[in-house]
Amino acid sequence: MRITTLPINNAQTQGPRRRELMSRQSPQHLENATDLMLRALRLRPASVSRGTLVLGAGACTEVPLAALVHGSDEVVLADLDEFSLRQAREELAAPAMRRAVRLVVEDLSGGISASLDRLLARQPWDTLREQGPRALFDAAASCLNACPVPDPPEFAELAPGSFGVVISSLLLSQLFSYPLLDVLDRVQRVASEAVNEQERHRGYQEAAQAFRVRVIAAHLHLLRALLDADGLAVLLCDQRGFVFDAPDPQSHRRAIPLVPRAFFELVEQNFTIVERREWEWLTDMPAEGRYGRGYDVIGYILR
Fold first, then answer.
1. Over 70: is that where the pLDDT of 107 sits?
2. Residues with Cβ < 8 Å from 286, sequence gap 6 or more?
């Protein structure tokens, strides 16, 4: 499962070195992420919990952890990658600040990848391969439609209504992307020549889109459930990825949509939008034989 590779990926893409690179390569990304989180703390009503939760915290590459600690009674960092969480906490210089940070190691999807993997393992893939690409993607679509999505997922260490500020830090697209990549990995192993047929299989495309929407809705419901009454959520999400092959990222760009249009409707159905921003995040510059990569990010403060 792709989710099991998360600690390896994080070791390469998170932490203080990556933060320093971002500050030179894409400073607006760090500035906007930091400003939205700290603004939510300032806007938090005095009557609500002073606990702050960061979902998808990782190594807190984009998270101003020290400032969150100063503005909170407790900061909870939640992620599947325990090593990165510990790395983030250890960056805090003062022992008292480190004691104010609690770590929660959880699959924040609620186990979607594991559930989907069990469904995929039951399929007669050798027989389906002989029947052709349509049969393969019929089975894949069936697994996606049958996959349970906890709505919202529940975690013993994250009590409902406990937090005055809940931050979802560039997590949402991963929650559905990793399971969808697991499906394609399975097809790739069985019949590599069939993978490109996914775009022509309407049933699979519809199932994948419905799966994305279910996961998004469940995550937004989780944010609502965890917030104290009148608390604020900060939602940072990749809208689109893009690749480019020139120093100017605006030229020769090819965009890759990540969230469906329903995402924006679901946000408005579940929350009042206090603030909304959009910006560009360059993760890799082009090099010899390699495209540059980046994301269009949307950031919300939500009540």
1. yes
2. 244, 245, 246, 247, 292
Question: Which residue's entry shows tokens 């604020």?
Answer: 232
Quote the number of domains for the chain: 1
Which residues span the domain enclosing 19? 2-108+149-171+214-302
Distance of alpha carbon 37 from the chain centroid: 16
Tell me what percent of the residues of the chain surpass a pLDDT of 70. 98
- Residue 197 is predicted with a pLDDT of 85
Residues 6+ apart with CB under 8 A from 87: 15, 59
Whether 29 maps to a domain, the answer reads: yes
Distance CA 184, CA 137 (A): 9
Q: Which is more confident, 220 or 291?
A: 220
Amino acid at 116: L
Check residue 244 and give its pLDDT.
84
- Does a structural domain hold residue 197? no
Tokens representing residue 127 in the block: 């027989």
* pLDDT tens figures, 218-256: 999 999 999 999 999 999 999 999 988 766 666 567 788
Residue of 124, 113, 142, 136 whose CA lies nearest to 208: 142
Distances 303 to 1, 79, 151, 158 between C-alpha atoms, Å:
35, 23, 19, 19
210 touches 145 (CB < 8 A): yes
Q: How far apart are CA 291 and CA 242, in angstroms?
A: 10
> What CATH number should be reported for the domain holding residue 284?
3.40.50.150
Considering the domain boundaries, does residue 297 fall inside one?
yes
For residue 250, the model assigns a pLDDT of 61
Question: Cα(145)–Cα(6) distance, rounded to whole angstroms?
Answer: 25
Q: Let me know if residue 115 belongs to a domain.
A: no
State the DSSP code for 61: S
Contacts 24+ apart (CB under 8 A), 283-288: 283/13, 283/26, 285/25, 285/247, 286/244, 286/245, 286/246, 286/247
Taken in order 140, 146, 152, 156, the sign of the CA dihedral is negative
